[in-house]
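Entry:
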Amino acid sequence: MAKFTVGDYLLLRLEQIGIKHIFGVAGDYNMEFLDYIVNHNGIELIPTCNELNASYAADGYGRINGVAALVTTFGVGELSAINGVAGAYAEHVPVVAITGAPATKIQALGSLVHHTLGTGDFSIFARMYQQVTVAQAYLTNENATTEIDRVLGICLLKKLPVYISIPMDVALAEVSAPSDFFIPPVFQSDSATIAEIIDVSVNILEKASQPVILADIGVARYHLHEQLRELLKATGYPYATMNMGKGLLEETHPQFIGIYNGAASQESVRKRIEQADCVLTIGALMTDFNTGKFSAKLDPSQTIEVHGQYVKVKHALYNNVAMADVLSAFCQRLQHRDPQTLYFKSATENLDAGFIEPIVGGSSAPITQQHFWYRFAHFLQEDDIIVAETGTCLFGASIVPLPKGATFVGQVLWGSIGYSVGSLLGCAIAASQRRSILLVGDGSFQMTAQELSTILRYNLKPIIFLINNDGYTIERDIHGERMPYNDIQPWNYHQLPNVFAGNAWAIKVSTESQLDKALETAQQNRDQLAFIEVVMDKMDSPEVLLEMLQQ
């Protein structure tokens, strides 16, 4: 009977928490562990073109699947990935970052081996990861099983990345197979605290004449979409999301009023939120791009904040309470209101006609941002995954109403240029049965274009819209409209699928009628990756972006 090793143990635990794929790049300090992955029936290794893209893919996978993992080699590999892991930390995505390290004897001797700084210090890179992960494990023969269980539990509990260093010889060390299934820890609310919170909050909300719910990223990370739906059903309150929470529920929901982004919001949404006599925020993160460059005006004395493990009622802070428990208690205690008494119009009622009326008769006119997003809104289907790059794509897509079951993925806080291409890979691997769509600008695409190769390698069939506006348009909007640092070398983008030799069709479009034909083909042809290069003017930007930058 084959021996059971630390490598086997780690993979079994990863499988038990729901991970079916691991992204990464081979290096001579992790290859023994990679052998275990290749030979493990329940997990597939997805090699990427580089470690940075592996971390982006893990981030996307984690958003869809609930948790993700990547594996890199010591030093050069893990530092290439640290940017993506930092992004997962900033945006609360549970990712297990695994580093294959030199053997323990080499480390103990301080040997001057490759992929080190030549100082004999083997802990320096791990110390870097302490800043972007919530827990770290440095595996030995003696502590491996307990440490693996500890950090995986923290990863799931805190919804943040963790770091595991697995030396080459430790990966091969024999350990006892676990006798039990891994049971993730559950955060337990303090009963007395939650009782007080609910009493105080219900009293405030019931007295409010114009309450409103503002939901955001925390709902997604704790996978409480249906609990949010139940709260809306129980109360009848109108609700909005912020940019990071876009698409928590279908945006045709009768109680959904739109996206709140401070002064950059649609006027009816801004007034309904800022003039409410009680705002119940759920998982809100008050970042610059989430608040219209901090132009949001939410009065703390009229706000109840529900977060993953704490609640703030006006100026009082309550720790040790779980978001799920608070939402459940609200559903039971709050009285249902008649929508007519709450004075709001749904987002559907307030939609620009372009998002509602069918667009017919495409012309030879150039494609504009406005026309593209109108047309894109009619292109979407239920259960789509939409990955939008930070830039004109993210802000343009933010105003497009999402259908039922659609998931919106965007790196609103970290905003690492090129994130979306790797993230698309992770999303498509995590949910291959769903249609994945990428919205990316030409400048961002040049950062991480090689991962299109991996997407084709695994015969994934997303629809890629590359917005070719001749450089960094969002940067030109911010500063340096005519400066050379916002220019890029033009590529023949739509020819890249042929270069990477995959199952794909591609086209370059520059007029409305050409766009219409491409979209029709993309709807009908689901058997190939679709790559649609959309040419726009370099200074054409979504109105919502320009409004935010003016704040």
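The longest helix spans residues 191-207.
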